[in-house]
Amino acid sequence: MVFGQVVIGPPGSGKTTYCNGMSQFLKLIGRKVAVINLDPANDALPYECAVNIEDLIKLSDVMAEHSLGPNGGLVYCMDFLEKNIDWLESKLKPLLEDHYLLFDFPGQVELFFLHSNAKNMITRLVKKLDLRLTAVHLVDAHLCCDPGKYVSALLLSLSTMLHLELPHINVLSKIDLIEKYGKLAFNLEFYTDVQDLSYLQRHLDQDPRSTKYRKLTKELCDVIEDFGLVNFATLDIQDKESVGNLVKLIDKSNGYIFASIQGSVVDFSKIAAAPLNWDYYRYPFGQCDAFNPTNLDERVQNGLET
C-alpha cells in the first residue's frame, strides 16, 4: 500500500509552502517523499518535484493557443490530464514501492466541488494504484476574522468533503498570523470545532451589510451544522510541533499508523481509539534542525533546536 496526501485549497492558502515544509518534515522523520506538482500555474517551485505536470502541458501555452484566461486554462489543463491519466500513472509507478506521495493541486476551488475531472483522476489513481490518500484542505486562518468569509470557508470545506469522498482533514493554515488581520470575536476553539454557529449569526447581525442576508446566513449555518462534518486542525508550517500534530492526524485518517502493525482486531481498535500522543517517529524531533520550509526567523530556529 502507498500512502499520501492530496493538498488542496483556495489560492493563497499556502499549498506550495505546505508541500515544501511537509516534505522536509517527513524526510527528517525517516520517510522517502515524492512531491507531485499538478498545478500548471505553479512555475516557481521551492521544492524538488518527482513529477511535474508542466512536462505534459503548460498553462501559458494553453492560454496563448486557445485564447483562454487563467481559470479556463486551468480547467482545460485538468481535462487534458484526465484524458492522459496514463502518463501520470507511468510517472507514479516507479515511486510506489517505497515513497510517500504529496500531490500539489491547483488552487481553483471549482475543480473540487463543481468539476469532476480532479475527482475522477484521484478515484482512478486510488483504485488502480492502490493508494491510501487523505485530502488536506487548507484554508487561510485570517478568514476567521470575518464572520461572512468564515461561513464561506465552511461551505467550501463541506462541499469539497462531499465531492471528493476521501478521508479529509480541514486545516486553518498560517495560524501564527491569524490576529494580524484583526481580533477574533470568539476564542480559537469556536472556529476549529465549528459548534453552535448561532453565536456567529448574532455577531453577523451587528454588521449592517449582512442584515439583508440574515435568513440566508441562518439557512447556510443550519446546513453546515446538520451535516456535522466540518472541523479544523491548525497549522503553523514553521513550527515542528504543529506540523507533527497534523502528521499524526493524517496518518490516522489514511491508515498509515496501521501499515506496519501485525496484531489482533483488539490491538488495532486500541490504536484507532488512542489519543494523538503516540511516538512512532524514526528520528526524534531534536534532529529536525534542518527543517526550514521558509526563511525562519531566529526565534523559530532556536525553537527547532530545543
Automatic annotation (TrEMBL):
Show the InterPro entries listed in the entry. Answer: Gpn, Gpn2, P-loop_NTPase
| Alphabetic keyword roster | GTP-binding, Hydrolase, Nucleotide-binding
One annotated Gene Ontology cellular component of this protein: cytoplasm
Q: Which GO terms describe its molecular function?
A: GTP binding; GTPase activity
Q: Give the protein family.
A: Belongs to the GPN-loop GTPase family.
Oligomeric form and interacting partners:
Binds to RNA polymerase II (RNAPII).
Functional summary from the UniProt entry: Small GTPase required for proper localization of RNA polymerase II and III (RNAPII and RNAPIII). May act at an RNAP assembly step prior to nuclear import.
| This protein's name | GPN-loop GTPase 2
What is the originating organism of this protein?
A: Musa troglodytarum
